[in-house]
């Protein structure tokens, strides 16, 4: 069965993830981690899929979307309206862009014979909706825990809840090894005024 992972960077302890639709930081190493984790597959004949909300899709500059090397799935309550607005862009990229109205229907649109892993990549509304309504579809949470002494304004948060527990570091290391990324990332990192560390949360 194809694994669904939720991947997010959040400011602990309140798990803030954004302000006015933007990331509150620009961490190059964390962005590289996101790209490599969501792109790399153990089976070179397969690809991964990234599932995002409409606002997240629209926040990506057009020249950078769809995210390369991955099947992009946009979730929206109004599929016909989205297709009306972005029909040329969707058609241009063929099977690399799909549109669905829920995570469950998104999984049904994907050819699971060629998809290795599915990543939910945001934003906050989608994260929280998936965790609240369909947690059984999610295998793991890949959480980058961000810390800083600076005062950061946040208006978007992820509600992880009591269903998930942070795992020992070896779980994260084993996951990276399974993707051929064992020696590419350090678990603890420092950049600018931020400290950040990579973790896996599993269902209790």
From TrEMBL:
<dbReference type="InterPro" id="IPR012259">
    <property type="entry name" value="DHFR"/>
</dbReference>
<dbReference type="InterPro" id="IPR024072">
    <property type="entry name" value="DHFR-like_dom_sf"/>
</dbReference>
<feature type="domain" description="DHFR">
    <location>
        <begin position="3"/>
        <end position="203"/>
    </location>
</feature>
<dbReference type="InterPro" id="IPR017925">
    <property type="entry name" value="DHFR_CS"/>
</dbReference>
<protein>
    <recommendedName>
        <fullName>Dihydrofolate reductase</fullName>
        <ecNumber>1.5.1.3</ecNumber>
    </recommendedName>
</protein>
<comment type="pathway">
    <text>Cofactor biosynthesis; tetrahydrofolate biosynthesis; 5,6,7,8-tetrahydrofolate from 7,8-dihydrofolate: step 1/1.</text>
</comment>
<dbReference type="Pfam" id="PF00186">
    <property type="entry name" value="DHFR_1"/>
</dbReference>
<comment type="similarity">
    <text>Belongs to the dihydrofolate reductase family.</text>
</comment>
<keyword id="KW-0560">Oxidoreductase</keyword>
<dbReference type="InterPro" id="IPR001796">
    <property type="entry name" value="DHFR_dom"/>
</dbReference>
<keyword id="KW-0521">NADP</keyword>
<keyword id="KW-0554">One-carbon metabolism</keyword>
């Amino acid at each position: 069965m194809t694994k669904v992972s939720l991947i997010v960077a959040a400011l602990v302890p309140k798990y803030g993830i954004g302000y006015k639709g933007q990331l509150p930081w620009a961490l190059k190493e964390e962005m590289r981690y996101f790209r490599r984790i969501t792109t790399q597959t153990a089976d070179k004949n397969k690809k991964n899929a990234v599932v995002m909300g409409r606002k997240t899709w629209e926040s990506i500059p057009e020249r950078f979307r769809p995210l390369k090397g991955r099947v992009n799935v946009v979730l929206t309550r109004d599929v016909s309206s989205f297709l009306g607005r972005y029909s040329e862009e969707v058609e241009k990229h063929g099977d690399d862009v799909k549109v669905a109205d829920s995570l469950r229907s998104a999984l049904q649109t994907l050819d699971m014979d060629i998809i290795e892993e599915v990543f939910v990549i945001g934003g906050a509304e989608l994260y929280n909706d998936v965790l609240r309504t369909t947690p059984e579809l999610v295998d793991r949470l890949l959480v980058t825990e961000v810390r800083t002494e600076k005062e950061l304004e946040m208006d978007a948060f992820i509600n992880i809840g009591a269903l998930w527990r942070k795992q020992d570091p070896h779980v994260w290391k084993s996951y990276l090894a399974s993707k051929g990324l064992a020696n590419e990332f350090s678990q603890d990192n420092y950049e600018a005024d931020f400290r950040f560390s990579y973790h896996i949360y599993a269902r209790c």
